Amino acid sequence: MIKGLSEYEKYKVLRPVVGEHQLDENGFPIINKTEFHEKEWQNIGVTGLQNASPKKKNDNMVLLMFNYDYRLLNLWNTPLKKIGLFQSFYAIATPDFSIYPEMNINDIRHNVYMSRWLGKTWQNFGSTVYPTIGWALPDTYDIVFGGVEKGGIVIISTLGCQNNTEVFLKGFNEMKKRLTPSLIIVYGDMIEGMTGRFVNYKYSDAFSRESFQLRIEGISQVFEIKEAV
Q: One Pfam family of this protein, by short name (predicted)?
């Protein structure tokens, strides 16, 4: 049983997972970690869901899923529709359903559940899956950092976070503490105070059909920012 849910909310959230899986204490399917191998990250690009096409060369591309919720819900409603396309990518992200402080905690829980459920399902169908991690205030941490195996590659976005870096960095550091990621893929501008091992992709317009999410320096550059001594 998932804590704090009404009968309606439990019905809304729960859905059987196709294939082998484990659940965390929240009832979220756990996305297995992907190990980081630096040699593989010499020329990995990135593109958005709206630009994904089977006609393109996708085997050196990471597919990001930052988009409006109503578009991401199409994936929830038809989770296997694009499975063949997703399998053609080097890796795919989980959908970035909305998480923000004003949301009801059960809506946040449901959005995280959908993201983890989809990620685990696609993982079970052979895709390499990187969990997209978002957070709000500290009372969301037990939920938003759930359903992810420690020590793997994760994706975050800094879009819209420049106006409240204190909240962002508090959640970022808690994410690192709980998930100990081997690589953090940052979509957007780096924020001062972030430490760890990164790949940083900039955005041009995450929600434009014509937009291609451009790569900084033209290729993926792995770099580290160490904590001040």
A: DUF4417
